[in-house]
Amino acid sequence: MKKEKDGSAAAGVTERLGVTLLKHGINFALYLPDQKECRLNLYNRVTGKQLFSLRLTNENRRGNIFSVFIKTNQFKKFFSDSEDWLKKLGYLYESRRGEFLDPCAPLLYGREQFGKKKTERKKLFGGIINSAFDWEGDEPLERPFQESIMYKLHVRGFTMDSSSGVSCPGTFFGITEKISYLKELGINCCLLMPVYEFEESLESKGIYDKINYWGYTEDNIHFAPKTAYAFQKEEPVKEFKYMVKALHESGIEVMLDMNFAPGTNTIVVLECLRFWVKEYHIDGFRLSNSSVPVSIIASDPVLGKTKIISEGWDYKIPPEKNKTFINYGESNQNFSNTAKRLLRGDEEQVKEFAGQFTSLSEEAGTVKYLTNHDGFTLWDVFSYDRKHNGANGENNRDGQDYNYSWNCGKEGKGGKNVLALRRKQMRNALVLLLLSQGTPLMLAGDEFCNSQEGNNNPYCQDNSISWLNWGKVSEEHDITQWVKALIDIRRAHPVFRRKEPFRQMDYIACGMPDLSFHGTSPWYPDYDHYSRQLGIMLCGAYTATDRNLYDASFYLAYNFHQEMQDFNLPKAREGEEWVLFLSTAEAYCWNIKNQEAVIESAKEESFSLEGRSIKIFIARKELKK
């Protein structure tokens, strides 16, 4: 180990972990609670030659943080004046256990190619951000939960397939090339699976024939954007910022899925999240409850208008009251499991679904999804009864055993009748998700029936199993249009995106409660063991569309019995009548951009509802006879 060349290095500052470029030098700060001293090794990362090494002792330590400030002239003497020396500078720390990467490094060199084995790549180094970026006034969008429509995607898998038609496949730039598609679909928030530096190789676990495609691992550099996801390998920071800025310009928020190992220091987690918000203008994060105390993070003043999503709230630390912006959201499997069981016709699901469909919280956002990265895609939910994970090489033992799926009569590919039923079930499922209360979260590709061939755990599949097949957009045009129509309905009618929970009372004396449940007969919900029918009425008088107008009322009828059922409609408000608005059996949906075109629809007091289908009625002014 080389000794210090001179004693010009001074004690650094500990307010910001990692490495920070300052006016006259560079500050290094490392959280290292279990060591009495360590070394900072500086390298020319291009040649691999060590430039010099500094020993960090108690003089460089405050609490559990080692820090040092090194003047610029100490580096420049190792490089010519014409060289961009900061891009060539790399660093590592060293303890008795050997050299190691700074877990808070804002940049990482050495993993430029995705999926490379450790034996096939160069030595890894931490790097320094030295690229100015003009945000042109951009800031996080701060959109409320109830106005958000989320879309979860894997950066590489989103555009890696040649069918994507982008010029920069599998990259941050690739996402920007699909912004017009996202905007047309109606998405206004992208939740990205891990985009920080994670180790793709599984060699440390004794696995040599597979890679970690998703990024959910404990070997992470959480502060650094993943260079392998950048088209311009020398400028991953700029490319990521450009993506965020471009999405923001189109009104689309950017949230990150952050996976911290259990036991990670909470202050380090807070430092990391603040860094992404300040440096990259990130709008929010999804966190795991098992790794960090999300209640503390959600109450952090710096993150006060940053969305924080987790599986549930730690009520030992109550949420802040009277907040002008609710930044904490809950998201778990409850809605997904109940909705999928209802869709396949399971018993005893009606009452549970009634609660899940309308559930809201005064203290937190409620994020609901049907499918997620760790399970079947929505098309596969209706195509497979069991998982087909043989390609993972684990004898089909990995992945969830209980998917609450139903193959509609045939496993995998089906005939004409099976495919027709699957498409109807797709329409049903999308209604359940996109017109439920709370914030809907879609899995990328579900809007065009993307399939993973029955694999419900493709964590190691960097291939066509996980990559989106964009050719399906034209093949499944009707389903994509169905999604667009439902999102348009959600945006046009705030009754589907309330801010506060329902009271199920007529508290404004309009003659109708804000929410009511029904069965095949009005006002008598049937929660019997064998029931598969439900009616939900949403009164628009409780939801203003602007200062002077209130939303329309809606009646939603569900029949997930295999046979047709007769329903009676409850009476509409005085002077109004029910008009058919949507039917999943006929793939009919009200054209909200041309409402008068179908205003002549017949008035109905009773109707028949085909098996496994949904009808929605809207209350309109009664036509004079």
Total beta strand runs: 29
Strand content: 15-25%
Helix content: 10-25%
Can you tell me the CATH superfamily of the domain at 140-330?
Glycosidases
| Main sheet strand line-up | 12-13-16-17-18-19-20-21
Instruction: Tell me the structural class.
Output: alpha/beta
Number of helices: 14
What is the second-level CATH architecture of the domain at 140-330?
Answer: Alpha-Beta Barrel
CATH topology grouping of the domain at 140-330: TIM Barrel
Biggest β-sheet strands, sense, barrel: 8 strands, parallel, barrel
The CATH class of the domain at 140-330 is identified as Alpha Beta
Structure explained in plain terms:
The protein is α/β, with parallel strands linked by helices. 19% of the residues lie in helices and 22% in strands. Among the domains are: 10-127, Immunoglobulins (Immunoglobulin-like); 140-330, TIM Barrel (Alpha-Beta Barrel), CATH 3.20.20; 515-621, Golgi alpha-mannosidase II (Immunoglobulin-like). The chain has 14 helices and 29 strands. Strand 2 and strand 3 form a beta hairpin. Mean pLDDT is 91; it is low at 1-7 and 596-602.
